[in-house]
Specification:
Helix content: 10-25%
Order of helices and strands: EEHEEEEHEEEHEEEHE
Largest sheet: 5 strands, mixed, barrel
Distance between the termini: 18 Å
């Protein structure tokens, strides 16, 4: 088990969010920024064809960003094509009409963002039990409720420091616990969800 300081790039749900361990000031974190101006000077224009796994460049302020094309519009005039691109270093989906080829050294650089998930979290949902107790009872759910997302975003909206306690690296996804530091207090995201009866820990379900 290791604990690393991270920055949150994109939060979708407790089972899928994106972080980076490359904090501001880290020499590796500044690598792509340092070459941004050079890449823009070497701009080679829109590509006519792109491989399914090829890393391309897109304009993304304040410089450029690396991206994988996930979809594109069908247009006879290539200059009007709209490309839907996943930014591999920012965990964002954008659309653009301009993509350009990148030097191989930039294509091969390790992606800045990492997918992550809380460990063994099972969501709970209230269901009315009309047959027996006549009261609401919590049952497992595969999808997070609005309350789960709201609780997570409230805790993550203004943190002072964020750490990921990594239990396992499963197929390039970091699985563990998200630890939130805010105003001198420490919150463990899984525990906070369990306290509010929005989720529970189920080790057997994920074996």
């Amino acid at each position: 088990m290791t604990t690393v300081q991270v920055e949150l790039l994109n939060f979708i749900a407790p089972h899928i969010f994106y972080v980076t361990t490359e904090l501001i000031g880290n020499s590796r974190a500044n690598f792509l920024s340092d070459v941004s101006a050079r890449i823009r000077k070497q701009h080679q224009g829109a590509l006519l064809s792109v491989g399914s796994d090829e890393i391309v460049g897109v304009i993304h302020e304040p410089g450029f960003a690396r991206a994988v094309i996930v979809d594109s519009s069908n247009s006879e005039n290539n200059s009007n094509n709209i490309f839907f691109c996943w930014l591999v270093d920012h965990a964002q989906l954008i659309k653009t009409n301009t993509i350009f080829k990148l030097p191989l050294e930039i294509q091969k650089a390790t992606a800045r963002c990492k997918a992550a998930s809380l460990n063994n979290i099972c969501y709970l949902e209230d269901h009315l039990d009309f047959r027996t107790t006549k009261f609401a009872r919590s049952v497992p759910s595969i999808a997070p409720s609005a309350g789960v997302i709201e609780c997570c975003l409230d805790l993550l909206s203004n943190y002072d420091k964020l750490e990921l306690e990594v239990v396992e690296n499963f197929e390039n996804m970091l699985i563990g616990e998200l630890i939130i530091y805010h105003n001198g207090a420490v919150y463990r995201l899984s525990e906070e969800l369990c306290k509010k009866q929005l989720a529970t820990i189920n080790d057997l379900l994920f074996q």
